[in-house]
């Protein structure tokens, strides 16, 4: 079983979150704790795969992983998914979000992100985008899109490589599979990207073309962060923005 296969199955266990108000440099150490950013996004600790202490510090519309104790085998699921998101994740919705939104009614989804990486860690840096036939605000969705901008160590997405595609000015390896609860399509950068300015709608349209969603389905959340297996202190999203038009 591929590492990320276990990962995605485990990620749906993050059923609760504690939402805080917006702060400057607010630290979150609760396993499923979260805090709202000045720009109206949510930073979540989401340490679903470990009982070891983990903390994230929200800085502006971004965050840094400031504690990441423990490690897990690289042939299994990661420790966590510390991330920032817009939309709704297990009933935790970002303030003023217009998600869920029907895919067919979306004109564009401009997004910008900048990552900060560190050595001595095994991780992937990934967008995690959720789609469902219904406007869900809780629970697991039917289809998951992952966009991996970087990865280190012997980790891989769910399923197998099915080909390549050129989107957002880059060529991506396309992986497809299922974790038993939802379909997953992953777009993996062949080499490390530290940032991206792009239209997420390109990935939505390609996913629809692959039969993993239809225009009548809903985009429910857009998340960006890290899945660490070993260490990870210092990993950061230094800037994040997204709009669903």
UniProtKB/TrEMBL annotation:
A biological process term (GO) from this entry: polysaccharide catabolic process
Coiled-coil regions, chain positions: none
Xref: Gene3D superfamilies: 2.60.120.180
Signal peptide boundaries: 1-24
Keywords: Carbohydrate metabolism, Glycosidase, Hydrolase, Polysaccharide degradation, Signal
Homology family: Belongs to the glycosyl hydrolase 12 (cellulase H) family.
Name of protein: Glycoside hydrolase
Organism: Streptomyces bauhiniae
């Amino acid at each position: 079983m591929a590492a990320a296969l276990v990962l995605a199955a485990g990620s749906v266990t993050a059923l609760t979150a504690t939402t805080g108000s917006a702060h400057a440099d607010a630290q979150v150490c609760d396993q499923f704790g979260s805090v709202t950013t000045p720009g109206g996004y949510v930073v979540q600790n989401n340490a679903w795969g470990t009982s070891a202490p983990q903390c994230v510090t929200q800085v502006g519309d971004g965050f840094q992983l400031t504690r990441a104790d423990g490690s897990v085998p690289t042939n299994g699921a990661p420790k966590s998914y510390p991330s920032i998101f817009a939309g709704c994740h297990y009933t935790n919705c970002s303030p003023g979000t217009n998600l869920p939104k029907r895919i067919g009614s979306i004109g564009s989804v401009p997004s910008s992100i900048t990552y900060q990486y560190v050595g001595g860690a095994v991780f992937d840096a990934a967008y995690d985008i959720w789609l469902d036939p219904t406007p869900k605000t809780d629970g697991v969705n039917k289809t998951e899109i992952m966009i991996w901008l970087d990865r280190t160590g012997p980790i891989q997405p769910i399923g197998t490589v099915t080909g390549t595609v050129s989107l957002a000015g880059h060529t991506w390896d396309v992986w497809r599979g299922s974790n038993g609860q939802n379909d997953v399509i992953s777009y993996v950068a062949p080499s490390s990207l530290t940032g991206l300015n792009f239209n997420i709608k390109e990935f939505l349209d390609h996913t629809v073309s692959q039969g993993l969603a239809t225009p009548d389905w809903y985009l429910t959340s857009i998340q960006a962060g890290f899945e660490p297996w070993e260490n990870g202190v210092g990993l950061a999203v230094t800037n994040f923005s997204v709009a669903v038009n």
